[in-house]
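seq as requested:
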Amino acid sequence: MAGLTGAISHDSVVWTIGSCFADNIGDRMLAEGFRVEVNPLGTLYNPLSILRSVAAVVEGKVYDEGDFFEYEGLWRCYDFHSLFAKRTVGESVAMVNSTLERLRSQLPKLTTVILTFGSARCFRRIDTGAVVANCHKQPARLFHVEDLTVDVSREAISETISLLQRVAPNLRNIILTVSPIRHISYGLHTDRLSKSTLLLAASALCTPTDATAAKTDVTTGNAAKAAPEVTYFPAYEIMMDDLRDYRFYAADMVHPSEVAVDYIYSIFTSSFYSPATIAEAAAHLKDFRRSLHRPR
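struct tokens:
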């Protein structure tokens, strides 16, 4: 598959944001020596949750103790994954704010963002109407379940792109992808409709030039500033149409197996890395693997 070959190099500053698949891609990039923040905001599934988290970075939001609640001995925030849940509220607040500040400091050098959408279903707090990133196993009666439309999903993704472009002057590439991880708890049909919504929303933002990459202009009112390339990488389609066999799933029959993720990532590398970058990544990976097997 062709793509924006050379779009990502070891000089790039990369964020992966979104579902578990953002971790899959980011972890492999990290092992290959790329300058990448791997899902630093925790697992996020739907376009509105991703928008809300990116906005917290861009707009300088500062969280305080009132944004957290205690459950099962840990202090949690509805805007963040349980990764940020700590034993004391002070620890949780500090971790959230330090993460946002670290990401904020990277914005001037940020060149590439990979946004991975897992679901078009979101959960809103009934008391505030706010979309949550994680329900933290709270009672269902506290939330309203909403299946986002194509238009709402598209607008959320578009606004996320615009926010990043406004504050990241070196941003050159935004890669959209739909996670191949299935949400079977919603039901197979509902999950397929959800993925279809995300696919249509992404397609509306990308003018296809081939099977893997596309671009669109994202206007900010500043005509002098070049818009980043907005491309689409078909991780979901590769899993569904190319691999399409249960032997490529993990034991839970939901997540792709390591073999499947490696296969998808190999197509990603050929789509967005130059031959020189691929060679450099292989050298870094060899060193990384050697470091894991140092004798005691």
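Confidence is low (pLDDT under 50) at residues 208-224.
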